[in-house]
Write a structure and sequence with these properties.
Layout lengths: L9 H8 L9 E13 L2 E7 L5 E9 L2 E12 L2 E19 L9 E18 L4 E20 L2 E21 L4 E12 L3 E3 L6 E5 L2 E13 L24 E5 L9 H17 L4 E5 L7 H21 L7 E5 L20 E5 L1
Length: 349
């Protein structure tokens, strides 16, 4: 069967419909982020060494500190897994005393490095915006430096840590995203022994931290961005007349752009010219989303095109509609990949 495929500026149309990466691609990614870190007031007990006399100190308040985090991860469909390492720094803001301290704390500095394994779920909101929710567990390395009576002492402690996280992602390219992130981070049972410098040990409740960051993510194997060029001229029709037309859609879209309506008008005119009594419309989707959702989306696209052809003068009864969801891609891809050329409707007669 001779085929005439009318792209009518597919690259330019796609640059209008999906100018940036349509959500999160599958595969490996790297991200870097930085921002502010807050530590909740730390309820702490002083223990003198070596006689182990305890004195309830009260609480330590920390000032607003800073944090920087780096992540390597992998997305597979709506889900993703990642390894994250971070560094946070906060200093003493205030002491609230409930008794006579064994030693006077003049200054305190807390430095922490975290090593976390996270899982997250990605929920698309619009063409560019995605929300991610996740949780993670790992280890927290804390180093505390205390100055008392002009003497400085420091100690370090490893703790089990866990966190919950939320991110708002905005696609700025086919392989890149900017995002805002929030983490609720908890490190269990920190303890710091400053013997023999100041003969005291500090033990307290869990470190509870809130971290807000701005970051950039880059996908190593996402789709390449389409090149926005002038539309190529449509190939000349063979003498026997056109028999197939293709209309492309934006991600998760079933509406017709002006460029798509040009294809509809050409298809209707060709059907009238050849006197074809049978027109077949088949809707398709890319491989992102569930099978059931894609099947319904491809049917909506096919019915939208049928309605446009009827409005151009073709008989409703002469048009057959079919939907194949993601089962018949024009460009074979892995599951979850948002390939623009697979979001289409084929018109044939």
């Amino acid at each position: 069967m001779k085929t005439r495929t009318l792209l009518l500026g597919a690259a330019a149309a796609l640059s209008l419909i999906a100018p940036a990466s349509a959500g999160m691609p599958n595969g490996w990614y790297l991200s870097l982020e930085g921002g502010a870190n807050w530590v909740e007031d730390w309820s702490v007990t002083q223990i003198s060494t070596p006689d182990n006399v305890e004195t309830r100190l009260g609480s330590v308040g920390f000032d607003t500190g800073w944090a920087v985090l780096a992540t390597v991860g992998y997305n597979f469909g709506r889900w993703g897994a990642e390894f994250e390492t971070g560094y946070r720094k906060n200093k003493l803001d205030a002491l609230t005393l409930t008794g006579d301290p064994l030693v006077d704390i003049e200054s305190l500095e807390l430095d922490e490095a975290s090593f976390m394994a996270n899982v997250h779920y990605n929920h698309p909101v619009t063409e560019r915006i995605t929300l991610s929710f996740g949780a993670g567990a790992g280890a927290d390395y804390a180093q505390m430096e205390v100055t008392s009576g002009g003497t400085a002492a420091e100690d370090e402690h490893w703790s089990f840590a866990y966190q919950g996280l939320a991110r708002l992602n905005y696609a700025v390219g086919q392989r890149s995203e900017l995002f805002l992130a929030y983490r609720y981070f908890r490190a269990a049972d920190p303890s710091f022994d400053f013997n023999p410098n100041i003969n005291a040990r500090l033990e307290g409740d869990d470190f509870v931290k809130h971290t807000a960051t701005l970051g950039f993510r880059y996908y190593l194997n996402g789709p390449e961005a389409p090149i926005a060029t002038a539309p190529p001229p449509a190939p000349a029709a063979p003498d026997s007349g056109p028999e197939e037309f293709i209309i492309f859609f934006g991600h998760n879209k079933s509406n017709l752009t002006e460029a798509a309506m040009e294809v509809v008008r050409d298809a209707a005119a060709a059907a009238k010219q050849t006197g074809s009594a049978n027109v077949k419309i088949v809707g398709h989707t890319d491989r992102s989303g569930s099978d059931s959702y894609n099947q319904a989306l491809s049917m909506r696209r096919a019915n939208t095109v049928k309605g446009a052809l009827v409005s151009e003068g073709l008989a409703d009864g002469a048009i057959a509609v079919d939907a194949r969801g993601e089962s018949d891609p024009l460009v074979p891809t892995a599951d979850g990949v948002r390939e623009p050329q697979n979001r289409r409707v084929n018109i044939s007669f």
